[in-house]
Amino acid sequence: MPKASGSRRTPPPSTVPAYGATDLFPALQPKTHVPPDWLTGLLTPPPRSDMFPIRHYPNVLGILRVATDPSDEIAKTWDNLRVILPLLALAVAVMVAVTMSVTLFVTRRLAVVGRAIGRMRENDLSVRAPSRPCAKSTGSPKG
């Protein structure tokens, strides 16, 4: 008996391709970059594998071998480092800028006090220590 021309025959289950959401929608696939060799060498542990016999008493049906492959985890780590390292560099730059500005503020204040002490050493006792930050000493007391 001939089949209708519009009907479809499904292939046996062993040949049906398995599609996940990332296969159907390539935009959902995480964008991983290939990690550099130095990072792979640094993070790759020594290879390890375990073997488990599959038994149905008294017969051994087969052996299951489980081996480690950390390449996907190293790729995820590299993706995270690609985001974290620039942020870390930015944080270090901000900390250096803040440190430099605080140091500049303190040294300016100390320079004003040092100039006042220097004038006092020269027996100009009319000089007073500055009462405001970075105030210019005028040489005469305010009153």
From TrEMBL:
Q: Which key words are in the record?
A: Membrane, Transmembrane, Transmembrane helix
Q: Where are the transmembrane segments?
A: 83-106
What is the name of the protein in this document? HAMP domain-containing protein
